[in-house]
Amino acid sequence: MTIAEKARAAAAALAGADAESSRQRHLGDRSWQLVHETGILRAFQPKRWGGDEASITDFADGIVAIGRASASAGWVASVVGVHPWQIALFPDETQQEVWGDNPERAIASSYTPTGSFEKVPGGYRVSGLWSFSSGIDRCDGVILGAVVGEREIDGESHPDFMSAILNRDQYTIDDVWHTAGLQGTGSNNVRVDNAFVPEHRVQSHLLYTKALGTPLPGQDLNPAALYRVPWAVLFNLIITAGALGAVHGFLDLWTAETTTRRTNYGTLLRDEAVIQDHLAEAAFTIGGASLRMRRTATELMEIAEAGSVPSEDARAFYRWELAKSAQSATDAVSDLMRSASGRTAYLDHPLHGKFQDVMAASGHAFLASDALGRAYAGRVLGSSKLPAVHL
Fold first, then answer.
1. What residue numbers bound the domain in which 57 lies?
2. Which of 217, 308, 352, 378 has fewest C-beta within 10 Å?
3. Domain-located, residue 59
4. Considering the domain boundaries, does residue 221 fall inside one?
């Protein structure tokens, strides 16, 4: 079975466990077990560590299937599940430290550079506060991001955005996740106080973006084409998949609710032409978003398997299309919600939680489409004024 097939087979159980995760404000034991059993958390792990080295399309399909049943489980699976891909780019010493004793070890993240890395002999001193670390309560380590000075690439200087991998005993978790949507993701804060991280556990994202194609230590050990796709586009794709899983879950429930719902005058809503139009438009938009995401996944793999890397122009288009697809699907959900009963305002209405899941997912920074649209269109037009986005 593919990972996506395993995820679909687990859908009913995932849906049944979702309420427990929401109550606990992080994935419950049953949800976490089910996510593990789909194989999604090791889909991008190298085969030499027992992973699948799965296709991006299979991964994305699996995330949507999980998120369709449980938006929180799908979101955590998308974010935590992509980290083995990045860890595979690090030196063997790093991979041995992360997976040597436990190849199933799961790592969380918070890339937004709100903390600091200070260069010291042999590595970096890490301090600060990072937010929105999804699944952190379920993981045994975290990847944190910071900007460390400047790095020159092809004669141009760029802010050097870096990632550092920390062990569980190097940070504390602030329990702050009290939210309306994605309640079960446990996306809490991570606090670090002067932790030392050796140099082999720190890597510059410029090697994944501005200098894409630069040989990385882990690529000799893990030669699969998967490990040569662009980080920013891949991360955008998995976040889009997490959001679309929540969108499909809302669409499923809205359809089921509307099939039997009656107006205050006793007529069935399913017979109302305007309601039929709303559903048709939403299905078209959401289906198109999913198809564009899958096409991007397929093209990324084809380019990597051909031994090439997508141009910066192509990467700008991919990121724009992924983010815009997620936002368009979110708009379709908002339209359906407006056409639903006013009773959806009640916290215990089935659609309320699903709607809030979609809204929370669509707020992720990588799904903010405006700057990405300008980054794409500005290149097409030959503009000299382009927004600074990760490509």
1. 3-99
2. 308
3. yes
4. no
Cα distance between residue 217 and residue 111, in whole Å = 21
End-to-end CA distance of the chain: 33
Tell whether 214 is covered by a domain. no
Number of domains into which the chain is organized: 3
Rounded Cα distance, 228 and 248, in Å: 30
Q: Is the pLDDT of residue 17 over 80?
A: yes
The three-state secondary structure class of 391 is coil
36 sits in which H/E element? helix 29-38
Residue 204, beta-bridge partner list: 162
pLDDT over 90 at 20, yes or no: yes
Residue 329 and residue 187 share a domain = no
In the prediction, which pLDDT does 231 show? 96
Domain check: are 195 and 153 in the same one?
yes
pLDDT 10s digits, 119-171: 999 999 999 999 999 999 999 999 999 999 989 888 889 899 999 999 999 99
The residue type found at 8 is R
Cβ-proximal residues to 349 (8 Å cutoff; 6+ apart), any chain: 341, 343
Same domain? For 118 and 250 the reply is no
Tell me how far the alpha carbon of residue 316 is from its chain's centroid.
18
Contact yes or no for 129/189 (Cβ under 8 A)? yes
71-87 and 56-69 are packed helices; what angle lies between their axes, rounded to 10 degrees? 150
Residue 391 lies in a domain: no
